[in-house]
Amino acid sequence: MQKPQGESVNGVHTETETSGKVITCKAAVVLGPGQPFVIEEIQVDPPQKMEVRVKILYTSICHTDLSYWKGESEAYRVYPRILGHEAAGIVESVGEGVVDMRKGDHVIPIFNGECGDCVYCKCDNSNLCERFRVHPLRSVMVNDGKCRFSTKDGKPIFHFLNTSTFTEYTVLHSACVVKIDSKAPLKKMILLSCGVSTGLGAAWNTAKVQAGSSVAIFGLGSVGLAAGEGARTRGASKIIGVDINPNKFIKGKAMGFTDFINPNDSKNPVHEIIQEMTGGGVDYSFECAGNLDVLREAFLSTHEGWGMTVLLGIHPTPRMLPIHPMELFDGRRIIGSVFGDFKGKTQLPHFAQQCMRGEVNLDEFITHELPFEKINEAVQLLAEGKSLRCVLHL
């Protein structure tokens, strides 16, 4: 067992060689729903066949982490567990069979993996993967059904969303690790692990927003704002933000939104307000709140004949869609989008290049920075709607 000491230029330790050995490091472990994260020393096993062990340098908290932490769905209640799925870091070592990465490479984890060999990965119309698609119920490694994390006395600590990034070192299957340009700023690249890719990709890849079109975005968290950024970069002429937190409008205006609606400010349904603003409805709407009543408003806010609603919010309740089948005969469509329809390993390296060239504005998404040990403060900032992304430095 080895505890890393010292680092090279790339951030990988040099005073001791840890490849093939168990590493002792710090992690933020959640022990139960709503309980504070506990920073404790854990043991991280070496990567097995087709796995990669990564030294995490930056990570952040997404609303999916927040939802699990709150225990909103009983099905996800597996403890102790290491959450986190937005991060960036450096490869510490690779397991047998990994040929597309090596020690020292700059990488980001992805919760929606891409093996490249299954029928899903080979299909141009899907970004899912037969074995490594997003799977909230999975809490162990795919290869052998075991954990790579354990307590100091050898008890297992469970995984989360194929990634588990609230730790100094993590182990992932290579299908869930994307190598990026070593010149890319890792602190910003964490946004590509989930929030920005999900929202912006929904506008680019799922809806294929056209220049001059109108857009309504329901829920102005990171995903919603990213959808707006995607619409802006595609030349949308009207981008309407809908949220009950008026503080979100300040950020939205800075990011190119043209109009804002607070549902609490009017007795009329939001869809009626939008229809009046746009002469019948928007071309595209994005539901980013995880609320079925909001989803219905988003659906009805689009124009009859061609309107499209993209579902992005996570809906943990057993309630069904609030849409009558006959309403689809009015020409409106509704579609879900996972990870912005990006094929992670195939397309994210190019997306990272676009971000490096300034084609996408990433700076506005990072609102706070804290040391890793203050992760509970970062959770509260997100829960209270005070932050978009708080970067945690490990």
Write up what this structure looks like.
The chain has 394 residues and is α/β, with parallel strands linked by helices. The chain has 2 domains: 23-193 and 362-393, Medium-chain alcohol dehydrogenases, catalytic domain (Quinone Oxidoreductase, Chain A, domain 1, Alpha-Beta Complex), CATH 3.90.180.10; 199-338, NAD(P)-binding Rossmann-like Domain (Rossmann fold), CATH 3.40.50. The chain contains 9 helices and 17 strands. The strands form 3 sheets. Strands 3, 4, 5, 8, 9, 16 and 17 form a 7-stranded mixed sheet that branches. It has a 6-stranded parallel sheet with strand order 12-11-10-13-14-15, sandwiched between helices. A 4-stranded antiparallel sheet has the order 1-2-6-7, with no helix packed on it. Helix 3 (195-206) packs across helix 4. It starts with 22 loop residues before the first strand and ends with a strand.
